[in-house]
Structure formats: structure tokens, C-alpha cells
Task: structure prediction
Amino acid sequence: MNLESTPQGVVAGSIPLFAGHPASDLLPIDGLGRVIRSAWREGSVARFLNYGDEQGNSQLIDFLVERLNCHEDLGINRENLMIIGGSTWGVDMVAQRLTVPGDAVLVDAPSYRDALHIFRDHQLELRAAPIDGEGIIPAGLERTLRDLASRGKKPRFYYVVPNFQNPSGITMTRERRLAVIELSREYGFAIVEDDVYSELRYEGASSASFFALAGGDQVIRLGTFSKTLAPGLRIGWLIASAERIAGFVESGLLRMGGGANPFSAAVVADFCRSGEWEAHVQWLRGQYRRRRDFALAALQTSMPAAVEWTRPAGGYFIWLRLPAAVHVDDLEASAQRQGLYFASGKGFYADPADGAHHLRLSFSFVPMPDMQAGIEILGDLIARMAG
Result:
């Protein structure tokens, strides 16, 4: 794999099947370049280079509000949306503003490992409930809530990636979402909906968001341009009640910094308003669908019969369950000796031991010949270790 520079965590010369990045040839480099050059020619570059409004670039806010209302009939206005520095930035801000050390938060088992890392940074108690092919199991979530209540504790929020979940690729059903909303009202916790992959659906009908189903009540929804435009721009958005948005905007970080990434936000606003983002997303869906199908076919031909995996309808990731005889630590060490890197399942659980027989593969980043080679290496290693 030839790269001029190696993105986050990628070892030069390796097959990085762990990497949840867009491939370099899927970035709209020419389109973004046109936007920036146009601003320079028109003499409007000063708006790119100064401090911005704390809530974020007003043109980008207006674009997102109009688009979300058109596509999802959310009924939001500009007081319900703010620009943030990517969804990870938003997760950290929510944890900072809604919790204090020792508070409990609810997560899936498995859940997004970097969010778990952030919650641990804030010294929060992670309480996990299992998921299956339809998302979180409501009965398991309710058991966790009852256990917390017996100790006199109430969780501050439930963190969830509902569409094409990182790491499993699973999408939560409408029925499960409604059940979670009912529990949130009964037990008094917020829902933090990290909805970063919903634009990348390759088949089937879209699912109504938690925000839509709850009428915006006690839901904080995060979105990002990292998966559909470019992660290096560090631009996303947060939707919530007007009261919550006002509280977030009052933070010292935004007051001191003049909003989230004013330069990037201005570039993204111009790119979106030109219509290029919409066209790029449409094109991306076809590219990623082709990569997903290729990865699934390679797994079918290369994996031993005892290995199980998900078939995501969108997003970036496929989740594997290993045979009982194969521990992910041993497999990881053997794979890395052959230049193959995947994401160990242990990082995606509140209790890492629960991921000892799981791993995540990404089909978004590596070229398809490398994907094929990496999956063949992985299948051969698993077969030898299981046998």
C-alpha cells in the first residue's frame, strides 16, 4: 500500500484492516480545492481566517437545519443545532457538561471504543447492556437500570451508535429504539445518539432517529462530515433542545476559541451550499457498497466454518466472532508478524474480557487487493489456531 504519509495509527507497509478512515482516493480533494480557491479569488478569504460565532458558522447551520428538516421532518430551527469539532469532540463535551466523576453512563456491549476511552477519562462508571442483531436488548438494559436503582444511582445518559454501529455494523430496529425511549423517560436519563454513519446506507430503508422518535425530548444527536467528506476537517454538528444548545455554547472552550474550527466550517459550508457534498455522498455510497460486498465475499471464501460475522447494511465495519479455541490476543500477535492489523474486540467492551473472541474489520480504507490478501492471511491464521 503506497501512501505519501500514514494516517492515524497506520504502520507503513502494513495491511491496516483496523482503520476506520476513508481511503485517500475517496476524498473530494478537487472539489474542496475549488471552494478554497474561489474564496481567495473573490477576496472573501477573511471570513475563513478570523474567529467565528460560538454556535458555529451560520451558513452551515442554516444548510444543516434545512436539510435535516427536509429529509427527516425534524421540525428543528437554528437554536437546536451547533457546529462542533467532529463527533468525538461532541462526545467529550457532552460528558464534560452532563456528568461529574463517579456518575454512571449506559453503553452497548460492544460499543465504540474511543467513546469508552473518553468516558474513562472523565472517571465515569460504565454500565453495559448486551446487543444482538437488532441492537440493544431492552430487557438487559432494564436489568442494568434496576441494578443501578437498587444502589441509589441514576445513569446520566445512554450512549449509542444506532446506525451501522461501530464496531458491529448492526442497526437498531425502530421497536428497540422506542423501547429505549420509554426506559429513558421512566428512569430519567438522556440519550446521546452518535449518528455518524446514517448517510452511508447501502440497502434497505432508513430508520427514524432517536431524536425524531422522541420529538427531541432528552436526546442529544451528533453528526459529522468525517465519514462523508474528510476527517481532517474536524467538523460535525450537535442537535438538542434550545436550552441545551445555549448551555453548550456558553462553554469556555467555545467562548475562547470563537466556535469550532471557523476555517474548516467556512470551507464545508461553501462546499455543501454548492451542491457538491450531496453529489459526493451519492457517489460514496456506491464506492463503499462495492468495498463491503468485496469484503463479505472474501470472508465467505477465506474463513473457517466456525467463524461468524455480521453483514452491515451500511457504514464501515464488519464484526467477527472467533472460535472458542482462538483468543484475539494470540491472533493479533500472529497477524501483526505478517503485517496485518485489525481492531481487537477487547477495546470495544466496558469489560475488555468480553471481547476476547471478537475483532473488527474495516472495508473503508485499504485497496481491495490488500483487503483480499489481509482476509486470506486472517482466515489461514484462524484455521491453524483453531485446528
